[in-house]
Write a structure and sequence with these properties.
The protein is an alpha/beta fold. It has 18 helices and 13 strands. The longest helix is centred in the N-terminal third of the chain and has 33 residues.
Length: 523
């Protein structure tokens, strides 16, 4: 009994470690192509419910290794004790890990009831569950391949779900080879050919599209921008309130001195360190200080009187004369940090939560989807983790129309010197492939970056460094929408439909076996 219990869980732990080592933070991406193999071996003789439990342990390990940085955020900014923060990490890991457990359950159910091996069941189940599962921090496992450009180009059609499915296909093929050897049978040629065909097809598509996209970028008009990374984090901004805006101005003047052809300066999220009235029309005195080029900056804006004041997490465009040209208010607010469910309904709830978590802020949700117009270009703005939400960017694109450049301003100082800023940047880089537009990403403590329409991070800063990042950004004015912006997550819907069909067929198979099992039991 002990061997039965420890064996599968030990293999599940191994698989979980391979998963987080292969994901973006640690970055050993080849591991993701075999990470699920120990788990498939661990669950091959288990019932679906027991496979779910092993899968839950696997998912918890994988997510604990990936989200370890949340402990820093909860202790430093949430004022939780370390034991309480570790318990919160465990709860988050179990919740996020249950997504993987559902995948394992579906794969085993398909094996037992329908005779479908993992090479068929795993890609469909993983893509379907990842598509519908409500993650607190949205991420796709396929994002681990963000540096492998020859594979990532399919994202313009399939979304990042396509990469998750690709990883699952390879894991299924590796499992087929190992299982065939263990079972002393020849591997299924049909399964291996299928996997090889999928991989070769993705590579061929990537090679063709990379050449096409790079050719378009080479002929596009270039816009020189400067991203100001002051290395002033959330805590430092509170302790030295007057230093932040002065430092942004000083570094901006340095950028102008170095690059006379500079057309645009971008400051990060909440760069302006005071509250800004929404009725203000010119910020030359308060913010830009006479900078002779347009500045895009983040600020907390407000409206209303002292008793009924509403705050917004905003991005604004100031012209070379300091006039406010446009404003975008963050629409997708971070749960438990910027908003709570039904917070507007419960009087006094925000005050109570602020007593528990004194550094939390609660904002009103933005309602408009309008592009920024600056430096003869059209920008699609996002704030913080809106940039990692493919569906949100697609909704923005469909409402406001195609943009020339993507823009994201972010504050990643909440997470310390951890893997989170790298993960955040990598997840955001896929929006460039989905839209075939360059991405400008400005952060206060790193990692600020420029990403080209192929998803290539071609300029970036360090982490927790003070830097001016300057570079030329291609301005794509074709007005064309790539396939993903038109069809969205069609792959997710397709896989969800296949899971529904398989579930119905599985139920019929179980009902058909029931009389036989009952009769056999009586005998």
């Amino acid at each position: 009994m002990q061997k039965m219990l420890t064996g599968p869980f030990a293999l599940a732990a191994m698989a979980g470690v391979l998963c987080f080592l292969g994901f973006i933070g640690f970055g050993f991406y080849p591991l993701v192509f075999v990470a699920w193999v120990p788990l498939l071996y661990a669950t091959q003789a288990l019932s679906p419910p027991r496979a779910y439990l092993v899968g839950l342990f696997f998912g918890t390990v994988a997510n604990a290794g990936g989200y370890y940085w949340i402990v820093h955020t909860l202790t430093v900014f949430g004022d939780l004790s370390r034991p309480a923060a570790l318990l919160a990490l465990l709860a988050l890991s179990i919740y996020q890990g249950s997504m993987m457990a559902f995948v394992v359950y579906l794969v085993r159910r398909a094996q037992i009831d329908l005779g479908l091996e993992p090479i068929w069941g795993l890609p469909v189940a993983y893509a379907a569950v990842e598509f519908v599962y409500p993650q607190l921090f949205p991420a796709n496992f396929g994002a681990a391949l963000y540096t492998v450009l020859v594979l990532t180009q399919i994202v313009e059609v399939t979304g990042v779900l396509g990469l998750t499915a690709l990883i699952a296909v390879v894991n299924g093929a590796v499992w087929e080879l190992i299982d065939a050897r263990v079972s002393r049978r020849p591997p299924s040629g049909r399964r291996i050919v299928f996997a090889a065909s999928v991989v070769l097809g993705v590579v061929a598509y990537g090679l063709v599209r990379l050449a096409m996209v790079d050719a378009q970028v080479a002929t596009a008009r270039k816009l020189r921008v400067a991203l100001i990374q002051t290395n002033i984090g959330a805590r430092e901004k509170v302790e030295h309130r007057d230093a932040s805006i002065a430092r942004h101005r000083q570094m901006s003047w340095q950028a102008i001195g170095r690059h006379p052809d500079l057309a645009l300066i971008v400051w990060p999220e909440s760069a302006y360190d005071r509250r800004l009235p929404r009725g203000v029309r010119n910020v030359s005195r308060e913010v830009t200080g006479g900078l002779p080029v347009p500045v895009i900056f983040g600020a907390i804006t407000y409206e209303g009187g002292p008793r009924r004041r509403r705050f917004y997490n905003s991005a604004l465009v100031a012209s070379s004369t300091g006039d406010i040209m446009a404003r975008f208010d963050k629409v997708r607010l971070v749960m438990f940090s910027e908003t709570l469910p039904s917070i507007a309904t419960w009087s006094g709830l925000d005050t109570t939560i602020m007593q528990w978590v004194p550094r939390a802020s609660f904002f009103s949700r933005g309602t408009t989807f309008e592009h920024f117009h600056a430096a003869n270009a059209v920008f699609l703005p996002t704030i913080c983790y809106e940039g990692i939400q493919a569906r949100f960017v697609r909704e923005f694109w469909r409402r406001a129309g195609p943009a020339d450049v993507l823009l994201n301003i972010t504050n990643d100082s909440w997470f310390g010197d951890s893997h989170e800023p790298r993960i955040h940047l990598a997840l955001a880089s896929f929006r460039s492939i989905e839209t075939r537009r360059a991405l400008i990403r400005s952060t206060n403590t790193g990692i600020s970056a420029l990403v080209d329409p192929a998803g290539r991070i071609y300029r970036r800063t360090g982490q927790w460094t003070s830097e001016i990042l300057s570079g030329e950004v291609p301005v794509i004015t074709s007005g064309m929408s790539p396939p993903y912006q038109v069809i969205g997550d069609s792959l997710g819907w397709l896989c969800l439909g296949l899971v529904a069909v398989a579930w119905a067929a599985s139920a019929r198979a179980r009902r058909a076996r029931a009389p036989f099992i009952t009769t056999s039991a009586r005998r």
